[in-house]
Design brief:
By secondary structure, the protein is an alpha/beta fold. It has a single domain, classed as Rossmann fold (3-Layer(aba) Sandwich), CATH 3.40.50. It has 8 helices and 7 strands; from the N terminus they run βαβαβαβαβαβαααβ. The protein has a 7-stranded parallel β-sheet, sandwiched between helices. It holds the Pfam family adh_short_C2.
Length: 246
């Protein structure tokens, strides 16, 4: 069933991982898809080739840059004439506790995980019609009872994302625009597993009742729900997609 037929979906960080899986998933529901990507030219082209150039567009840019966000919106409107769903998926996952965080680390993480989504939403909202959807990305670790201290910097920014969702649902509600967030648990992506040794990875899997990491495709199913008309009366919510971890 083409539940997103005629809809235009923007996804940042759309050339790999959860972003790529989401792009392909919403395309199967009939959406036209615009992905923003930072450096993975091959991955971005694979997404466009799979969906088809008539229904997909890849825009290279930095999700932390307000100028690049404006260009992303401009290119989307130029090709498809509208924006119906905005998914701010791009992010960074630093492994930094209090002692190991530099000012540069802090600024880079805040820029990509908070500033990027904040101003992307700001620039997009004037172009969104009633019924539009905005989806941000948090993390299950904001809600887990046991947390590695080295996730301090990362969770500082994701806590901010969750407050953006809570408050913006009140501001955007009168415009009939919904905003929610997906909070994935540990997911089998390059971003998550980069630099992680096998012993730590095994320990992470043991925290999940099903004994494995989630897949990008499983998270993409939740993204598709929040993109669809079925989520019309849901706003200001954080959906944990984690196999029962928390």
């Amino acid at each position: 069933m083409a539940t997103l037929a005629g809809q235009v979906v923007i996804i940042t960080g759309g050339s790999k991982g959860i972003g790529k899986a989401t792009a392909l998933r919403v395309a199967r529901d009939g959406a036209k898809v615009v992905i923003q990507y930072h450096s993975d030219d091959q991955g971005a082209q694979e997404v466009v080739d799979t969906i088809g150039e008539e229904n997909a567009l890849a825009v290279k840019g930095n999700a932390a840059s307000v100028t690049d966000s404006e260009e992303l919106i401009r290119r989307t409107l130029e090709k498809f004439g509208q924006i119906d769903v905005l998914i701010a998926n791009a992010g960074t996952l630093p492994y930094k506790d209090l002692a190991s965080t530099s000012e540069e680390d802090f600024q880079a993480c805040v820029d990509l995980n908070v500033k990027g989504p904040y101003f992307l939403v700001q620039k997009a909202v004037p172009h969104l019609r009633p019924g539009a959807r905005i989806i941000l990305v948090s993390t299950t670790l904001c809600h887990a009872s046991t947390v590695n201290p080295r996730y301090l910097l990362y969770l500082t920014t994701k806590g901010a994302v969750e407050q953006m969702v809570r408050v913006l649902s009140k501001e955007l509600g009168p415009k009939e625009i919904s905003i929610n967030a997906i909070a994935p648990g540990p997911t089998d992506t390059a971003l998550f597993s980069k630099g992680m040794n096998p012993a730590v990875l095994a320990a992470v899997k043991n925290l999940i009742p099903r004994g494995r990491l989630g897949t990008p495709e499983e998270v993409a199913e939740a993204m598709a729900f929040f993109s669809s008309p079925a989520s019309g009366w849901v706003s200001g919510q954080i959906l944990r997609v984690n196999g029962g971890m928390a």
